[in-house]
Design a protein that fits this description.
The protein is of the alpha/beta class. The chain has 16 helices and 10 strands. Residues 29-375 form the Exostosin GT47 domain.
Amino acid sequence: MANPPFLFLLVLLNVAADPRAGADAPDSCAGRRIHIRRIPPRFNTDLLRHCGADTFPLTDASAAATSAPPWESLANHGLGPRTHPRSRSWYRTDARLMEPFFHRRILERECLVDDPAHADAVFVPYYAALDALPYVLDPALLDASARHGAELAEFLARDQPRILSRRQGHDHFLVVSGSAWDYSQSPATDPRLWGSTSLLRLPELANFTFLTTESRMWPWQEHAIPHPTSFHPSTLPHLRAWLARARWSRRATLMLFAGGVSRPSRPNIRGSILAECANRTDACAVVDCSGGKCSHDPGMYMRAMLRSKFCLEPPGDTPTRRSTFDAILAGCVPVFFEDLAARKQYGWHLPPARYDEFSVHIPKETVVFGGVRIVEMLQSVPEAEVRRMRKRVLEMAPRVVYRRHGSTAELRAAGKDAVDLAVDGVLRRIRRRTRAQEEGRTETIYAMEDDSVEM
């Protein structure tokens, strides 16, 4: 029998867009009308069954002790169960369920239209990360991983083909949980590489805009949006109360590293950080998040972040980290060691020109091979400057928060959150490209334009 959280999410996510949305104020919706593409449930809500299946669980045995049961991750439309019965804003969020809760938020937007001919953009509510699970977890399907997304592409081309052909897909967008690297394996790779698919390489989807938590630098169709944290406020007082706590928290620790603590086999920035922290316990704290211990328990690291002035954000398997956004939320000034970690990723949410106002950059080569000591670099930052950076970090925090669905009008009116800014960015991008398409300027459709937005 399906569990209650699954049924609840299944029902609400199948709500159709109201064709009358925005009808009373057409001018306010100019350039902002979105059509939610109707696709068979096998491409979204049916995939939620993977979360409770024995064959394709979201969690593995090594993380079972510290993770919520897979089906519980579906609670609250993918935000997961609350961290505590009395918690009002904190959830055990599994980032791989970003697609369902983003879908839920899109359903709440104004200016949804039922007729795609009147839409400025088309949202495809495909749960790509869940659909990828069989390909990346079942050895029998490894050789078929190049087919990930192919059935969806075939459906979109076959069902009401005018929707796709009207602008050759340039007005379509979708959300993909995780790094773009996990979905960009060449279809020609033989033998197939374990753990990734070729979704982003499908020629049928080449003109779509993909929102991922980490993008590659060169493909024009991708754009990175913040990793989801566990904080999802539903009211303005809840948001303000947390920011006040972060603002006035006493910070006795100079710097913090939260992440895996296994020593690398060759010199790299993580190894240098761990070595320095081992020698400078008076100035550096370490939270061991090895084996996914921190994934669904924000208490493991948020308390330590609240007590720290700087949070170290070294690259791991890929450049970006969820920890960056946890640090911003905690008012812990992030320390980056390469531009790919954030500056060249999240231009819609964290304007690149402003990074020096709320973060510190220390080139990783100077630490690993140049003898630079991170503690000494951070101790040299004047306390007044640290306070200014913390203030700026907390001003940025609401922009990277994914507020809870059904949040109050007061909170929505207070400012845009991560979903709002992502959709605004998509609409700007689509407007530029469809305008270039209509004017016959095909060479500018694929231009690598600057998508950053000043605040």
